[in-house]
Amino acid sequence: MSRESETDLPGDAALPGALPEALRAELIAFRRDMHMHPELGNQEFRTTSALKHRLEQAGLTPRVLNTGTGLICDVGTWDGVRPMLALRADIDALPIPDTKTGVPYRSTVANRAHACGHDIHTTAVLGAGLVLAGLDRQGLLPNAVRLIFQPAEEVLPGGAPDAIESGVLDGVGRIIAVHCDPRVDAGLIGLRPGPITSACDRLEISLDGPGGHTARPHLTTDLVTAAAKVVTDVPALLARRVDARSGLAVTWGRIESGHACNVIPQHAELSGTVRCLDLPAWRDAPDLVHAAIDEIATLHHAKSQINYIRGVPPVVNDPVITELLRAAQAARRGSYAIEDTEQSLGGEDFSWYLEQVPGAMARLGVRTPGDPVHYDLHRGDFDADEQAIEVGVELFTAAALIDGNRL
Fold first, then answer.
1. CB 183 within 8 A of CB 333
2. pLDDT tens-place string over residues 150-182
3. Which listed residue, 57, 60, 163, 372, has the most CB atoms within 10 A of its CB?
4. Alpha carbon 32 to its chain's center
5. What's the distance, Cα to Cα, between the start and end of the chain in Å?
6. What gap in Å lies between CA 379 and CA 18, rounded to an integer?
């Protein structure tokens, strides 16, 4: 049985839309060009222009978002009744150097790299849009599909809220996306109904006291001790105030205070992240964290100022849409090309879309099968097996066709 016609689900006809060899080569070239010219969040002007040009070449009418970067593009004509399926990609890069060696498509921009696979996500959605546009010209697209190329995913609270405000979900009833996973072999996807990522918020704290001599800490606020107690006692206190299954965790990344060994300082600063596996607990997290910090700071006579910066909620995959992704991958590559995946502690602003419409995100395998080196995301030497592009295109196009035929 050919890969294109294979399906585990009764009632799903063989799906058209196999990726032509010329388009496969074009998409790899597009991805490499994007990889060589990474742009940070809300600065993706070159990327936006390249996407707009290629979609217009295909006879489509993309619209740049109100933020000035990123765009949306409908494939097919929406009838105003049946809600569309949206395919979402993120287009920004990271502020880290590209340290790969031996590849011709290394970043040409200092301290900028596509080290999270957004170039793969973007190219897969672009390829799916081009395939679906061809099917639409043949009258084979059962319902309109919206492509969303979103900026600033890496910038808390992400570019998704601005994109939503720009109207990207108008007429959309379901949304799907992929995220590169270097632990999964190229050719495979990982699926999980329910939470698949963690919530991620940022926490910045200032502690103040009158200062003094280290010979007389009893006459002042021992600010360094107060800061140390916040660091150690706040996570422990939270662990006793929320259900342990929620996975609420505060982890510190920075603490600064003082200039001399015999001077008790007047000011200390701490910053870190708050992560949470559970959506209801995430909604309560700011109040819980504020109360715990104030309690510890007051105990040590320090004045606290807390800046709790909302990041992103967990991505909670809708079970029905997760099964749509399972059906799409099975139809293209067989059920053996699907594996279960665990919930990640990383954050993803795709979650903001799921506050509005049901949807699901799949883990897209990007590890070259048999490669003994295990790369990780957000590393300068991260790279992806480009076979993942074709897998992403197939997944998106099959999902659009199955979804449209079932409406």
1. no
2. 999 999 899 999 999 999 999 999 999 999 999
3. 163
4. 20
5. 27
6. 33
At position 59, the amino acid (one-letter code) is G
Q: Tell me the C-alpha distance between 250 and 259, whole Å.
A: 27
Q: Summarize the chain as % helix, strand, coil (round to 5).
A: 35, 25, 40
152 burial type by CB count under 10 A (0-12 exposed, 13-18 middle, 19+ buried): buried
* pLDDT band (50, 70, 90) for residue 14: low
Q: Are 155 and 116 in contact (CB under 8 A)?
A: no
Crossing angle between the packed helical segments 118-137 and 387-406, to the nearest 10 degrees: 50
| One domain for residues 245 and 344 | no
- pLDDT at res. 2: 35
Same domain, 245 and 325: no
**Phi and psi angles of residue 226, each rounded to the nearest 5 degrees, phi first:** -60, -45
Q: Please check whether residue 67 is in contact with residue 166, taking contact to mean a CB–CB distance below 8 angstroms.
A: yes
Per-residue pLDDT at 205 exceeds 50:
yes
Encoded tokens for 134:
């061809």
Q: Cβ-count burial of 258 within 10 angstroms (0-12 exposed, 13-18 middle, 19+ buried)?
A: middle
Q: Are 88 and 176 in contact (CB under 8 A)?
A: yes
Domain end call among 296, 312, 328 = 312
The answer to whether 344 and 198 have CB atoms below 8 angstroms apart is yes
How many CA atoms are closer than 13 Å to the CA of 400, on its beta-carbon side? 36
Reported confidence tier of residue 17, pLDDT bands at 50, 70, 90? low
- Each residue's pLDDT tens digit, 36-83: 999 999 999 999 999 999 999 999 999 999 999 999 999 999 999 999
> Looking up tokens 């050719």, which residue turns up?
187
3-state secondary structure of 309: strand
- In this prediction, residue 156 carries a pLDDT of 86
Give the integer Cα–Cα distance in Å for 59 and 63: 13
Q: Could you tell me if 207 and 139 lie in one domain?
A: no
- Give 255 or 375, the one with higher predicted confidence: 255
- Domain limits for position 374: 21-196+315-406
Both 183 and 209 in one domain: the answer is no
Share of the chain above pLDDT 90, in %: 90
Question: 370: which DSSP letter?
Answer: T
Q: How many CA atoms lie within 13 A of 195 on its CB side?
A: 21
Q: What is the pLDDT of residue 9?
A: 37
For residue 16, being part of any structural domain is answered with no
Does some domain include residue 249?
yes
